[in-house]
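Extended Data, panel c. Modelled sequence:
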Amino acid sequence: MANRNLLRQREAHYAEAGGYAAVLGAFGAISVKAPSFPQSSIAGISMGVLALLFAVQPLGSQYLGDVYAPILLLWFLLQIVVGIHNIAVFAPWIGKAINPYYLYRFFTSGVSADLAWRSTATIFLCITGAEASYADMGHFTRKSIRIAFVGILYPSVMISYFGQSAWLIKNPGSYATSFFASIPWGHGFFYFYFVVTVLAACVASQTMISAAYSIVRQSMALRCFPRMKVIHTSTKVAGQIWIPAVTVFIGAFTIAAVGIFQNSIALGFSYGVCVSTLMMGTDLLIALTMIVVWELPLICPILFLLFFGFIDSIFWTANLTKIPLGGWFAVAVAASVCLFSYIWFLGTSLKRQYAVEHEENYSDVMSPRSQPAQLAPALSTIYQNVQAGYDLTRLPGLGLFYSEQNDERHCPTVLAKFVRRLNALPELSAIVTVRSVPVSSVSPQERLLLRDVPNCPGVVQCIVRYGYQDKVSQGDTFLAALLKEVDRQGALDINSLCQDRVMYVILSSKLSGDRRGNPTVASVLKAGFVNWVYAPLAQILSISVSENWDLPQDRTLQMGVSLAI
Protein backbone atom coordinates (compact mmCIF):
# COMPACT_ATOMS: atom_id res chain seq x y z
CA MET A 1 0.00 0.00 0.00
CA ALA A 2 2.85 2.36 0.82
CA ASN A 3 4.42 1.70 -2.58
CA ARG A 4 1.08 2.32 -4.29
CA ASN A 5 0.57 5.65 -2.50
CA LEU A 6 4.14 6.71 -3.28
CA LEU A 7 3.59 5.86 -6.93
CA ARG A 8 0.41 7.93 -7.05
CA GLN A 9 2.24 10.91 -5.59
CA ARG A 10 4.99 10.57 -8.16
CA GLU A 11 2.45 10.16 -10.94
CA ALA A 12 0.99 13.52 -9.96
CA HIS A 13 4.45 15.07 -10.08
CA TYR A 14 5.37 13.56 -13.44
CA ALA A 15 2.05 14.63 -14.91
CA GLU A 16 2.71 18.16 -13.70
CA ALA A 17 6.29 18.04 -14.94
CA GLY A 18 5.01 17.01 -18.35
CA GLY A 19 2.69 19.99 -18.22
CA TYR A 20 5.64 22.39 -17.94
CA ALA A 21 5.69 22.31 -21.73
CA ALA A 22 2.42 24.23 -21.43
CA VAL A 23 1.75 27.64 -19.99
CA LEU A 24 -0.14 26.38 -16.95
CA GLY A 25 2.71 24.09 -15.93
CA ALA A 26 5.24 26.90 -16.32
CA PHE A 27 3.31 29.19 -14.02
CA GLY A 28 3.22 26.37 -11.49
CA ALA A 29 6.71 27.55 -10.47
CA ILE A 30 5.04 30.30 -8.48
CA SER A 31 4.00 27.71 -5.92
CA VAL A 32 7.67 26.75 -5.41
CA LYS A 33 8.55 30.17 -4.00
CA ALA A 34 5.07 30.99 -2.67
CA PRO A 35 3.29 27.78 -1.62
CA SER A 36 0.31 29.75 -0.28
CA PHE A 37 -0.36 31.42 -3.64
CA PRO A 38 -3.89 30.32 -4.74
CA GLN A 39 -4.03 27.78 -7.57
CA SER A 40 -7.04 29.60 -9.02
CA SER A 41 -4.92 32.73 -9.41
CA ILE A 42 -2.24 30.73 -11.23
CA ALA A 43 -4.91 29.38 -13.56
CA GLY A 44 -6.25 32.90 -14.14
CA ILE A 45 -2.80 34.24 -15.05
CA SER A 46 -2.30 31.30 -17.42
CA MET A 47 -5.65 31.96 -19.10
CA GLY A 48 -4.69 35.60 -19.66
CA VAL A 49 -1.35 34.66 -21.24
CA LEU A 50 -3.06 32.09 -23.49
CA ALA A 51 -5.61 34.67 -24.61
CA LEU A 52 -2.76 37.03 -25.54
CA LEU A 53 -0.99 34.22 -27.39
CA PHE A 54 -4.03 33.52 -29.55
CA ALA A 55 -4.57 37.23 -30.13
CA VAL A 56 -1.18 37.65 -31.86
CA GLN A 57 -1.74 34.81 -34.34
CA PRO A 58 -2.62 37.16 -37.24
CA LEU A 59 1.05 38.23 -37.26
CA GLY A 60 1.94 34.84 -38.74
CA SER A 61 4.58 32.27 -37.82
CA GLN A 62 7.26 34.09 -39.83
CA TYR A 63 7.23 37.17 -37.59
CA LEU A 64 6.46 35.20 -34.44
CA GLY A 65 9.42 32.94 -35.23
CA ASP A 66 11.74 35.94 -35.30
CA VAL A 67 10.71 36.66 -31.70
CA TYR A 68 10.33 33.07 -30.46
CA ALA A 69 13.54 31.56 -31.83
CA PRO A 70 15.97 33.48 -29.55
CA ILE A 71 13.76 32.76 -26.51
CA LEU A 72 13.67 29.04 -27.24
CA LEU A 73 17.39 28.87 -27.95
CA LEU A 74 18.10 30.67 -24.65
CA TRP A 75 15.85 28.24 -22.75
CA PHE A 76 17.59 25.20 -24.22
CA LEU A 77 20.99 26.66 -23.36
CA LEU A 78 19.84 27.37 -19.79
CA GLN A 79 18.70 23.76 -19.42
CA ILE A 80 22.10 22.56 -20.60
CA VAL A 81 23.95 24.86 -18.16
CA VAL A 82 21.76 23.94 -15.17
CA GLY A 83 21.82 20.25 -16.07
CA ILE A 84 25.62 20.12 -16.35
CA HIS A 85 25.95 21.94 -13.03
CA ASN A 86 23.66 19.50 -11.22
CA ILE A 87 25.36 16.49 -12.77
CA ALA A 88 28.81 17.74 -11.79
CA VAL A 89 27.78 18.65 -8.24
CA PHE A 90 25.43 15.83 -7.24
CA ALA A 91 26.06 12.70 -9.35
CA PRO A 92 28.74 12.76 -12.07
CA TRP A 93 28.07 9.05 -12.70
CA ILE A 94 24.38 9.63 -13.63
CA GLY A 95 25.12 8.74 -17.26
CA LYS A 96 24.95 5.09 -16.29
CA ALA A 97 21.16 5.46 -16.41
CA ILE A 98 21.40 4.88 -20.17
CA ASN A 99 22.15 1.23 -19.44
CA PRO A 100 19.00 -0.84 -20.21
CA TYR A 101 19.80 -2.99 -17.18
CA TYR A 102 18.27 -0.34 -14.92
CA LEU A 103 15.06 -0.51 -16.95
CA TYR A 104 14.96 -4.23 -16.23
CA ARG A 105 15.59 -3.58 -12.54
CA PHE A 106 12.75 -1.06 -12.50
CA PHE A 107 10.25 -3.70 -13.62
CA THR A 108 11.61 -6.55 -11.51
CA SER A 109 12.32 -5.03 -8.10
CA GLY A 110 10.91 -2.54 -5.65
CA VAL A 111 7.29 -2.51 -6.84
CA SER A 112 4.95 -5.04 -8.39
CA ALA A 113 4.84 -5.53 -12.16
CA ASP A 114 1.37 -3.95 -12.23
CA LEU A 115 2.55 -0.77 -10.53
CA ALA A 116 5.64 -0.61 -12.72
CA TRP A 117 3.49 -0.92 -15.81
CA ARG A 118 1.10 1.79 -14.63
CA SER A 119 3.98 4.13 -13.92
CA THR A 120 5.01 4.05 -17.60
CA ALA A 121 2.02 6.33 -18.25
CA THR A 122 3.75 9.13 -16.38
CA ILE A 123 7.22 8.22 -17.61
CA PHE A 124 5.78 8.55 -21.10
CA LEU A 125 5.30 12.29 -20.55
CA CYS A 126 9.08 12.68 -20.82
CA ILE A 127 8.91 11.99 -24.56
CA THR A 128 5.70 13.82 -25.45
CA GLY A 129 6.38 16.46 -28.04
CA ALA A 130 8.42 14.16 -30.24
CA GLU A 131 5.20 13.16 -32.03
CA ALA A 132 4.77 16.75 -33.23
CA SER A 133 8.30 17.16 -34.60
CA TYR A 134 7.13 17.13 -38.20
CA ALA A 135 3.66 18.60 -37.63
CA ASP A 136 4.87 22.04 -38.78
CA MET A 137 6.15 20.90 -42.18
CA GLY A 138 4.11 23.63 -43.85
CA HIS A 139 5.91 26.26 -41.81
CA PHE A 140 9.45 24.81 -41.76
CA THR A 141 11.49 22.50 -43.95
CA ARG A 142 12.33 18.90 -43.06
CA LYS A 143 16.05 19.72 -42.93
CA SER A 144 15.60 22.62 -40.50
CA ILE A 145 13.49 20.46 -38.18
CA ARG A 146 16.10 17.70 -38.12
CA ILE A 147 18.97 20.11 -37.47
CA ALA A 148 17.11 21.77 -34.60
CA PHE A 149 16.10 18.43 -33.07
CA VAL A 150 19.50 16.75 -33.23
CA GLY A 151 21.62 19.83 -32.66
CA ILE A 152 19.93 21.50 -29.68
CA LEU A 153 16.58 20.06 -28.61
CA TYR A 154 17.50 16.45 -27.88
CA PRO A 155 20.84 17.18 -26.12
CA SER A 156 19.20 19.90 -24.02
CA VAL A 157 16.30 17.72 -22.88
CA MET A 158 18.52 14.73 -22.03
CA ILE A 159 21.01 16.84 -20.06
CA SER A 160 18.12 18.46 -18.19
CA TYR A 161 16.67 15.04 -17.26
CA PHE A 162 20.06 13.78 -16.12
CA GLY A 163 20.58 16.96 -14.08
CA GLN A 164 17.22 16.64 -12.32
CA SER A 165 17.89 12.95 -11.64
CA ALA A 166 21.27 13.78 -10.15
CA TRP A 167 19.69 16.45 -7.94
CA LEU A 168 16.93 14.03 -6.82
CA ILE A 169 19.53 11.50 -5.66
CA LYS A 170 20.64 14.01 -3.02
CA ASN A 171 17.14 15.45 -2.45
CA PRO A 172 14.75 12.49 -2.79
CA GLY A 173 11.96 14.14 -0.83
CA SER A 174 11.60 17.07 -3.27
CA TYR A 175 10.58 15.14 -6.37
CA ALA A 176 7.29 17.09 -6.61
CA THR A 177 9.16 20.33 -7.49
CA SER A 178 12.40 19.03 -8.96
CA PHE A 179 12.33 21.06 -12.18
CA PHE A 180 12.40 24.48 -10.52
CA ALA A 181 13.76 23.39 -7.12
CA SER A 182 16.96 22.12 -8.79
CA ILE A 183 17.79 25.56 -10.21
CA PRO A 184 21.01 26.82 -8.54
CA TRP A 185 22.56 30.23 -7.89
CA GLY A 186 19.96 32.04 -5.81
CA HIS A 187 16.68 33.89 -6.27
CA GLY A 188 17.82 36.19 -9.07
CA PHE A 189 18.73 33.37 -11.41
CA PHE A 190 15.58 31.46 -10.41
CA TYR A 191 13.27 34.26 -11.47
CA PHE A 192 15.20 34.81 -14.69
CA TYR A 193 14.89 31.09 -15.46
CA PHE A 194 11.18 31.23 -14.58
CA VAL A 195 10.48 34.07 -17.03
CA VAL A 196 12.36 32.30 -19.84
CA THR A 197 10.47 29.08 -19.07
CA VAL A 198 7.10 30.85 -19.32
CA LEU A 199 8.11 32.35 -22.67
CA ALA A 200 9.34 28.95 -23.88
CA ALA A 201 6.01 27.44 -22.85
CA CYS A 202 4.28 30.01 -25.07
CA VAL A 203 6.51 28.90 -27.93
CA ALA A 204 5.54 25.27 -27.33
CA SER A 205 1.88 26.27 -27.43
CA GLN A 206 2.55 28.21 -30.64
CA THR A 207 3.94 25.06 -32.22
CA MET A 208 0.69 23.21 -31.58
CA ILE A 209 -1.37 26.13 -32.88
CA SER A 210 0.65 26.32 -36.11
CA ALA A 211 0.37 22.55 -36.51
CA ALA A 212 -3.40 22.78 -36.09
CA TYR A 213 -3.58 25.24 -38.99
CA SER A 214 -1.65 22.85 -41.25
CA ILE A 215 -3.78 19.84 -40.25
CA VAL A 216 -7.07 21.67 -40.80
CA ARG A 217 -5.89 22.88 -44.20
CA GLN A 218 -5.01 19.33 -45.22
CA SER A 219 -8.39 18.14 -43.91
CA MET A 220 -10.13 20.72 -46.10
CA ALA A 221 -8.24 19.41 -49.13
CA LEU A 222 -9.46 15.88 -48.26
CA ARG A 223 -13.07 17.14 -47.89
CA CYS A 224 -13.06 16.20 -44.19
CA PHE A 225 -13.55 19.81 -43.06
CA PRO A 226 -15.69 22.65 -44.39
CA ARG A 227 -14.08 25.48 -46.26
CA MET A 228 -12.71 28.15 -43.99
CA LYS A 229 -11.07 31.47 -44.58
CA VAL A 230 -7.31 30.88 -44.88
CA ILE A 231 -4.97 33.86 -44.66
CA HIS A 232 -1.39 33.45 -45.85
CA THR A 233 1.06 35.40 -43.71
CA SER A 234 4.18 34.91 -45.83
CA THR A 235 5.04 35.74 -49.43
CA LYS A 236 7.76 33.07 -49.53
CA VAL A 237 6.34 30.01 -47.75
CA ALA A 238 2.89 28.80 -48.81
CA GLY A 239 2.41 26.80 -45.62
CA GLN A 240 2.63 29.78 -43.27
CA ILE A 241 -1.05 30.41 -42.74
CA TRP A 242 -3.58 31.71 -40.25
CA ILE A 243 -7.13 30.38 -40.01
CA PRO A 244 -9.27 32.71 -37.87
CA ALA A 245 -12.02 30.14 -37.19
CA VAL A 246 -9.48 27.59 -35.92
CA THR A 247 -7.87 30.23 -33.71
CA VAL A 248 -11.19 31.02 -32.06
CA PHE A 249 -12.13 27.34 -31.64
CA ILE A 250 -8.81 26.15 -30.20
CA GLY A 251 -8.42 29.27 -28.08
CA ALA A 252 -11.85 28.86 -26.51
CA PHE A 253 -11.29 25.17 -25.76
CA THR A 254 -7.78 25.71 -24.38
CA ILE A 255 -8.78 28.52 -22.04
CA ALA A 256 -11.88 26.57 -20.97
CA ALA A 257 -9.74 23.50 -20.19
CA VAL A 258 -7.42 25.55 -17.99
CA GLY A 259 -10.40 27.04 -16.21
CA ILE A 260 -11.99 23.60 -15.65
CA PHE A 261 -8.94 21.65 -14.48
CA GLN A 262 -7.15 24.52 -12.67
CA ASN A 263 -3.86 22.56 -12.62
CA SER A 264 -1.60 20.73 -15.02
CA ILE A 265 -1.87 17.28 -13.41
CA ALA A 266 -5.14 16.25 -15.07
CA LEU A 267 -4.08 18.01 -18.28
CA GLY A 268 -0.87 15.99 -18.19
CA PHE A 269 -2.83 12.73 -18.05
CA SER A 270 -5.06 13.96 -20.87
CA TYR A 271 -2.00 14.81 -22.94
CA GLY A 272 -0.51 11.36 -22.31
CA VAL A 273 -3.66 9.58 -23.52
CA CYS A 274 -3.74 11.75 -26.63
CA VAL A 275 -0.08 11.36 -27.62
CA SER A 276 0.20 7.62 -26.85
CA THR A 277 -2.90 6.95 -28.98
CA LEU A 278 -1.38 9.04 -31.76
CA MET A 279 1.87 7.08 -31.65
CA MET A 280 0.05 3.76 -31.65
CA GLY A 281 -2.01 4.84 -34.62
CA THR A 282 1.12 6.00 -36.42
CA ASP A 283 2.66 2.53 -35.99
CA LEU A 284 -0.39 0.91 -37.57
CA LEU A 285 -0.45 3.38 -40.46
CA ILE A 286 3.25 2.88 -41.17
CA ALA A 287 2.73 -0.88 -41.23
CA LEU A 288 -0.17 -0.40 -43.64
CA THR A 289 1.98 1.89 -45.80
CA MET A 290 4.69 -0.79 -45.96
CA ILE A 291 2.17 -3.24 -47.39
CA VAL A 292 0.06 -1.04 -49.68
CA VAL A 293 2.41 1.75 -50.83
CA TRP A 294 5.96 0.44 -50.49
CA GLU A 295 4.89 -3.15 -51.29
CA LEU A 296 7.45 -4.63 -48.89
CA PRO A 297 7.40 -8.30 -47.89
CA LEU A 298 4.92 -9.10 -45.12
CA ILE A 299 7.75 -9.86 -42.70
CA CYS A 300 8.80 -6.17 -42.69
CA PRO A 301 5.59 -4.72 -41.17
CA ILE A 302 5.42 -7.69 -38.78
CA LEU A 303 8.93 -7.03 -37.47
CA PHE A 304 8.20 -3.31 -37.31
CA LEU A 305 5.10 -3.84 -35.18
CA LEU A 306 6.82 -6.41 -32.96
CA PHE A 307 9.44 -3.82 -32.04
CA PHE A 308 7.87 -0.35 -32.18
CA GLY A 309 4.29 -1.54 -31.74
CA PHE A 310 5.23 -3.51 -28.63
CA ILE A 311 6.95 -0.52 -27.01
CA ASP A 312 4.15 1.91 -27.87
CA SER A 313 1.47 -0.56 -26.77
CA ILE A 314 2.98 -0.62 -23.25
CA PHE A 315 2.75 3.17 -23.03
CA TRP A 316 -0.68 3.26 -24.65
CA THR A 317 -2.34 0.67 -22.43
CA ALA A 318 -0.85 2.29 -19.32
CA ASN A 319 -2.15 5.69 -20.38
CA LEU A 320 -5.64 4.29 -20.91
CA THR A 321 -5.82 3.76 -17.15
CA LYS A 322 -5.57 7.55 -16.76
CA ILE A 323 -8.80 8.27 -18.63
CA PRO A 324 -10.85 8.66 -15.40
CA LEU A 325 -8.16 10.97 -13.97
CA GLY A 326 -8.31 13.54 -16.79
CA GLY A 327 -7.61 11.55 -19.93
CA TRP A 328 -11.33 11.64 -20.70
CA PHE A 329 -10.93 15.23 -21.90
CA ALA A 330 -8.62 14.24 -24.76
CA VAL A 331 -10.88 11.31 -25.67
CA ALA A 332 -13.97 13.56 -25.71
CA VAL A 333 -12.34 16.24 -27.88
CA ALA A 334 -10.83 13.70 -30.28
CA ALA A 335 -14.13 11.82 -30.61
CA SER A 336 -16.01 15.06 -31.31
CA VAL A 337 -13.56 16.19 -34.00
CA CYS A 338 -13.53 12.72 -35.63
CA LEU A 339 -17.33 12.58 -35.62
CA PHE A 340 -17.55 16.05 -37.17
CA SER A 341 -14.97 15.16 -39.84
CA TYR A 342 -16.75 11.92 -40.70
CA ILE A 343 -20.13 13.65 -40.97
CA TRP A 344 -18.69 16.28 -43.28
CA PHE A 345 -16.78 13.76 -45.41
CA LEU A 346 -19.83 11.50 -45.77
CA GLY A 347 -22.08 14.41 -46.67
CA THR A 348 -19.71 15.83 -49.30
CA SER A 349 -19.15 12.33 -50.70
CA LEU A 350 -22.91 11.89 -51.17
CA LYS A 351 -22.99 15.27 -52.87
CA ARG A 352 -20.19 14.35 -55.28
CA GLN A 353 -21.80 10.99 -55.94
CA TYR A 354 -25.03 12.75 -56.89
CA ALA A 355 -23.14 15.11 -59.22
CA VAL A 356 -21.43 12.20 -61.00
CA GLU A 357 -24.66 10.24 -61.38
CA HIS A 358 -26.51 13.25 -62.81
CA GLU A 359 -23.82 14.58 -65.15
CA GLU A 360 -25.13 15.91 -68.44
CA ASN A 361 -23.30 16.50 -71.69
CA TYR A 362 -23.46 19.87 -73.37
CA SER A 363 -25.28 18.26 -76.30
CA ASP A 364 -28.04 17.02 -73.98
CA VAL A 365 -28.50 20.37 -72.28
CA MET A 366 -28.35 22.57 -75.39
CA SER A 367 -30.38 20.35 -77.75
CA PRO A 368 -33.86 21.61 -78.75
CA ARG A 369 -36.79 20.26 -76.77
CA SER A 370 -40.32 19.74 -78.00
CA GLN A 371 -42.99 22.11 -76.76
CA PRO A 372 -45.24 20.59 -74.09
CA ALA A 373 -48.83 19.95 -75.08
CA GLN A 374 -50.17 22.42 -72.53
CA LEU A 375 -48.18 25.59 -72.23
CA ALA A 376 -49.22 29.06 -71.21
CA PRO A 377 -49.42 31.40 -74.24
CA ALA A 378 -47.02 33.84 -72.63
CA LEU A 379 -44.32 31.14 -72.57
CA SER A 380 -44.92 29.70 -76.03
CA THR A 381 -42.70 32.34 -77.66
CA ILE A 382 -39.71 30.81 -75.87
CA TYR A 383 -40.16 27.54 -77.70
CA GLN A 384 -40.78 29.31 -80.99
CA ASN A 385 -37.25 30.64 -80.76
CA VAL A 386 -35.79 27.14 -80.43
CA GLN A 387 -34.44 26.20 -83.85
CA ALA A 388 -32.25 23.41 -85.17
CA GLY A 389 -28.83 22.95 -83.62
CA TYR A 390 -28.05 24.67 -80.38
CA ASP A 391 -29.93 27.91 -80.89
CA LEU A 392 -31.64 29.05 -77.72
CA THR A 393 -33.17 32.34 -76.82
CA ARG A 394 -30.14 34.62 -76.51
CA LEU A 395 -30.30 37.16 -73.75
CA PRO A 396 -28.37 40.38 -74.40
CA GLY A 397 -25.21 40.73 -72.36
CA LEU A 398 -22.72 38.54 -70.55
CA GLY A 399 -23.37 35.72 -68.09
CA LEU A 400 -20.72 34.40 -65.71
CA PHE A 401 -21.55 30.93 -64.38
CA TYR A 402 -19.39 29.87 -61.42
CA SER A 403 -18.63 26.17 -61.09
CA GLU A 404 -15.92 23.89 -59.74
CA GLN A 405 -16.58 21.53 -62.66
CA ASN A 406 -15.07 22.70 -65.93
CA ASP A 407 -14.40 20.22 -68.74
CA GLU A 408 -15.23 20.15 -72.42
CA ARG A 409 -17.76 17.32 -72.25
CA HIS A 410 -19.89 17.72 -69.14
CA CYS A 411 -22.06 20.77 -68.62
CA PRO A 412 -21.79 22.32 -65.15
CA THR A 413 -24.90 22.01 -63.01
CA VAL A 414 -25.27 25.78 -62.69
CA LEU A 415 -25.47 26.24 -66.47
CA ALA A 416 -27.69 23.19 -66.98
CA LYS A 417 -30.19 24.40 -64.37
CA PHE A 418 -30.22 27.89 -65.92
CA VAL A 419 -30.95 26.53 -69.39
CA ARG A 420 -33.53 24.02 -68.16
CA ARG A 421 -35.49 26.69 -66.31
CA LEU A 422 -35.27 29.58 -68.78
CA ASN A 423 -34.47 27.84 -72.08
CA ALA A 424 -32.16 30.77 -72.76
CA LEU A 425 -28.53 31.81 -72.67
CA PRO A 426 -26.73 35.15 -72.53
CA GLU A 427 -24.99 36.23 -75.72
CA LEU A 428 -21.70 35.34 -74.09
CA SER A 429 -21.76 32.66 -71.39
CA ALA A 430 -18.52 32.12 -69.49
CA ILE A 431 -18.16 29.12 -67.19
CA VAL A 432 -15.78 30.44 -64.55
CA THR A 433 -13.69 28.21 -62.29
CA VAL A 434 -11.46 29.78 -59.64
CA ARG A 435 -8.25 27.88 -58.90
CA SER A 436 -5.57 28.42 -56.25
CA VAL A 437 -2.00 27.70 -57.30
CA PRO A 438 1.04 27.18 -54.97
CA VAL A 439 2.76 30.50 -55.76
CA SER A 440 2.48 33.78 -53.91
CA SER A 441 1.05 35.73 -56.84
CA VAL A 442 -0.07 35.22 -60.43
CA SER A 443 0.57 37.99 -62.94
CA PRO A 444 -2.49 39.42 -64.76
CA GLN A 445 -1.11 38.14 -68.08
CA GLU A 446 -1.14 34.53 -66.80
CA ARG A 447 -4.30 34.66 -64.73
CA LEU A 448 -6.86 33.58 -67.35
CA LEU A 449 -7.08 30.35 -69.33
CA LEU A 450 -9.83 30.51 -71.93
CA ARG A 451 -11.22 27.99 -74.41
CA ASP A 452 -14.37 27.55 -76.48
CA VAL A 453 -16.90 24.83 -75.75
CA PRO A 454 -17.13 22.72 -78.96
CA ASN A 455 -20.37 23.14 -80.91
CA CYS A 456 -21.71 25.68 -78.40
CA PRO A 457 -21.49 29.18 -79.93
CA GLY A 458 -21.03 31.93 -77.39
CA VAL A 459 -20.08 29.55 -74.57
CA VAL A 460 -16.53 29.65 -73.24
CA GLN A 461 -14.75 27.99 -70.33
CA CYS A 462 -12.56 30.22 -68.18
CA ILE A 463 -10.14 29.10 -65.47
CA VAL A 464 -8.99 31.97 -63.25
CA ARG A 465 -5.78 31.34 -61.29
CA TYR A 466 -4.83 33.12 -58.08
CA GLY A 467 -1.76 32.81 -55.87
CA TYR A 468 -2.07 32.41 -52.13
CA GLN A 469 -1.28 36.10 -51.60
CA ASP A 470 -3.71 37.30 -54.29
CA LYS A 471 -7.15 38.54 -53.39
CA VAL A 472 -9.87 36.80 -55.37
CA SER A 473 -11.80 39.60 -57.03
CA GLN A 474 -14.35 39.13 -59.79
CA GLY A 475 -15.27 42.78 -60.18
CA ASP A 476 -14.83 45.21 -63.08
CA THR A 477 -11.09 44.58 -63.48
CA PHE A 478 -11.63 40.85 -63.96
CA LEU A 479 -14.53 41.51 -66.33
CA ALA A 480 -12.40 43.79 -68.53
CA ALA A 481 -9.60 41.20 -68.64
CA LEU A 482 -12.07 38.46 -69.57
CA LEU A 483 -13.59 40.45 -72.45
CA LYS A 484 -10.11 41.35 -73.68
CA GLU A 485 -9.12 37.67 -73.71
CA VAL A 486 -12.36 36.70 -75.48
CA ASP A 487 -11.68 39.32 -78.15
CA ARG A 488 -8.05 38.23 -78.51
CA GLN A 489 -9.01 34.62 -79.14
CA GLY A 490 -11.88 35.58 -81.43
CA ALA A 491 -14.43 33.59 -79.45
CA LEU A 492 -17.02 36.34 -80.02
CA ASP A 493 -17.23 39.81 -81.47
CA ILE A 494 -17.38 41.81 -78.28
CA ASN A 495 -18.22 44.99 -80.21
CA SER A 496 -21.72 43.62 -80.75
CA LEU A 497 -22.01 42.48 -77.13
CA CYS A 498 -24.18 44.44 -74.75
CA GLN A 499 -21.48 44.93 -72.11
CA ASP A 500 -23.70 46.97 -69.81
CA ARG A 501 -25.72 43.86 -68.93
CA VAL A 502 -23.67 41.45 -66.87
CA MET A 503 -25.10 38.60 -64.84
CA TYR A 504 -23.19 36.64 -62.17
CA VAL A 505 -24.82 33.24 -61.61
CA ILE A 506 -23.87 31.03 -58.65
CA LEU A 507 -25.45 27.77 -57.53
CA SER A 508 -26.57 27.10 -53.99
CA SER A 509 -27.19 23.37 -53.64
CA LYS A 510 -28.85 21.77 -50.65
CA LEU A 511 -28.67 18.06 -50.00
CA SER A 512 -31.92 16.41 -48.94
CA GLY A 513 -32.95 12.84 -48.25
CA ASP A 514 -35.47 11.39 -50.69
CA ARG A 515 -38.03 9.22 -48.89
CA ARG A 516 -40.07 8.35 -51.96
CA GLY A 517 -40.33 4.83 -53.35
CA ASN A 518 -40.01 1.64 -51.36
CA PRO A 519 -38.26 2.58 -48.12
CA THR A 520 -35.50 0.36 -46.80
CA VAL A 521 -33.55 0.57 -43.58
CA ALA A 522 -30.53 1.91 -45.46
CA SER A 523 -32.54 4.55 -47.35
CA VAL A 524 -34.32 5.72 -44.19
CA LEU A 525 -31.01 6.03 -42.31
CA LYS A 526 -29.43 7.89 -45.22
CA ALA A 527 -32.38 10.27 -45.50
CA GLY A 528 -32.31 10.91 -41.75
CA PHE A 529 -28.57 11.58 -41.80
CA VAL A 530 -28.87 14.01 -44.70
CA ASN A 531 -31.97 15.87 -43.46
CA TRP A 532 -31.23 16.07 -39.75
CA VAL A 533 -27.42 15.98 -39.49
CA TYR A 534 -25.51 17.09 -42.57
CA ALA A 535 -27.93 19.59 -44.13
CA PRO A 536 -28.31 21.78 -41.00
CA LEU A 537 -24.55 21.64 -40.41
CA ALA A 538 -23.79 22.63 -44.01
CA GLN A 539 -26.24 25.52 -43.81
CA ILE A 540 -24.59 26.88 -40.66
CA LEU A 541 -21.05 26.56 -42.04
CA SER A 542 -21.75 27.74 -45.60
CA ILE A 543 -19.55 30.53 -46.97
CA SER A 544 -20.98 33.17 -49.28
CA VAL A 545 -19.03 33.18 -52.54
CA SER A 546 -20.52 36.51 -53.65
CA GLU A 547 -19.12 38.30 -50.58
CA ASN A 548 -15.66 36.68 -50.64
CA TRP A 549 -15.09 37.29 -54.35
CA ASP A 550 -16.44 40.86 -54.57
CA LEU A 551 -19.33 39.92 -56.84
CA PRO A 552 -21.72 42.86 -57.36
CA GLN A 553 -24.72 42.09 -55.19
CA ASP A 554 -27.20 43.84 -57.51
CA ARG A 555 -26.13 41.71 -60.49
CA THR A 556 -25.69 38.35 -58.76
CA LEU A 557 -28.25 35.60 -59.32
CA GLN A 558 -28.18 32.76 -56.83
CA MET A 559 -29.98 29.64 -58.01
CA GLY A 560 -31.14 27.23 -55.33
CA VAL A 561 -31.15 23.52 -56.12
CA SER A 562 -32.28 20.66 -53.93
CA LEU A 563 -30.28 17.48 -54.49
CA ALA A 564 -32.49 14.56 -53.49
CA ILE A 565 -30.35 11.64 -52.35
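The two ends are 62 Å apart (CA to CA). This feature is highlighted in the accompanying rendering.
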